[in-house]
Design a protein that fits this description.
Elements (H helix, E strand, L loop, with lengths): L3 E4 L49 E5 L5 E4 L8 E4 L10 E9 L3 H9 L7 E3 L4 E5 L3 E6 L4 E6 L16 H10 L8 E11 L2 E13 L2 E2 L4 E6 L4 E7 L1 E11 L3 H14 L6 E3 L6 E13 L4 E16 L2 E3 L6 E6 L4
Parallel strand pairs: 4-17
Antiparallel strand pairs: 1-2, 2-3, 5-15, 5-18, 6-7, 7-8, 8-9, 9-14, 10-11, 11-12, 11-13, 13-14, 16-20, 17-18, 18-19, 18-20
């Protein structure tokens, strides 16, 4: 009987991904800079991903009882095939954008004042401004610019969320009124935020702004209880987005060849990442272009590739037991 033991490498948490708010600025309109008006084509660009994905080490037991360890690179002969429903049409060139995060005390105070907080306490041990009033609590972290506003005068209703009419328009209007939504183009997705006994009790509305028509790898999240009360809003305030330079975009064929090389050679996951490397056949079912927020505060175009896999080698039979495979590769040519 085949046995497989999987040892997980260190995985990196999604850095505030589902809890990030993309806001061009809470400053007056004349003080904000858009990607269209601020360009700096001489700036140095650090094109590295964050390590959001990492492939685990895998130990397979061969038919003769010996162990076969897979780590860092794929030791098996393999092929990668395209299994797309249609040929994707991607642009020939895209910009890389620099993000400037507003982490100042003034930003914290302006944002807090919108919810009636006049007195902030600064905890220097964790670099956070804190406040409470009769209805809400407030946090603003000066290292990252991350904030959280939560209701405190009531506990979230933990009844099953059966209401199908999520008031998205009402939530959007509240965000605009508070100065928390300045972008005009974004995607909106409603999902389960908390589930108890297989029943959703809290729902999330996730808004992800777009640049050049493509989704940003960050967004604003609003949590609702079953009575449609807003439980929390949280994220990061941006000061401006600066268009740095326009780059040529890799073709799908070039990306597939690059993925083959990187998987076979076990290249360091700097400009790419994947969460599974043990396969003899990888079928690419989806390729999506999006903007990815790096640790150095850039928005860079990235191909998000979703696949299924098969492993058949010397008695080893694994028909996608790990599940869907995800890979990210920087989409622009350096």
């Amino acid at each position: 009987m085949q046995r497989r033991t999987i040892f997980y490498l260190i995985s990196f948490a999604l850095f505030l991904l589902l809890s990030s708010v993309i806001i061009y600025s809470i400053l007056p309109l004349e003080n904000r800079h858009s990607a269209e008006t601020v360009l700096n084509e001489t700036a140095y660009i650090d094109l590295r991903l964050n390590g959001k994905l990492s492939a685990p080490s895998v130990v397979y037991i061969m038919e003769n009882g010996t162990e076969f360890v897979v780590e860092k690179k794929n030791p098996f002969p393999f092929e990668i095939e395209l299994n797309l429903p249609s040929q994707p049409d991607f642009p020939k060139q895209l910009y890389v954008y620099k993000i400037y995060v507003n982490k100042s005390e003034n930003c914290a105070r302006v944002l807090a004042s919108k919810y009636g907080f006049n007195n902030l306490y600064y905890n220097k041990d964790v670099n956070v401004f804190l406040a409470n009033n009769l209805t809400h609590s407030f946090e603003f972290y000066t290292v990252t610019g991350y904030f959280r506003i939560m209701r405190i005068n009531m506990s979230p209703v933990k009844e099953e969320f059966t209401n199908k009419n999520i008031p998205i328009d009402v939530v959007l209007e509240i965000l605009r009124d508070k100065g928390l939504l300045k972008v005009n183009e974004y995607t909106v997705k409603v999902g389960d935020y908390e589930v108890i006994d297989n029943r959703p009790v809290l729902k999330s509305i996730v808004l992800k702004p777009k640049i050049d028509g493509y989704e940003i790898d960050a967004g604003i999240i609003v949590v609702l209880d079953s009575k449609l009360n807003i439980v929390s809003i949280e994220g990061t305030v941006l000061d401006k987005i600066e268009g740095i330079k326009k780059y040529e975009v890799k073709s799908v064929e070039e990306v597939v060849d690059e993925l083959k090389t990187k998987v076979a050679n076990g290249e360091p996951m700097i400009d790419w990442e994947i969460d599974w490397i043990a396969f003899t056949k990888l079928s690419i079912n989806s390729i999506k272009l999006k903007y990815y927020w790096t640790k150095e505060d850039y928005f860079i175009p990235v191909y998000e590739i979703r696949c299924t896999y098969v492993l058949e080698f010397d008695g080893i039979r694994d028909y996608g037991g790990w599940g869907e495979v995800t890979a990210n590769i920087i989409a622009i040519k350096k």
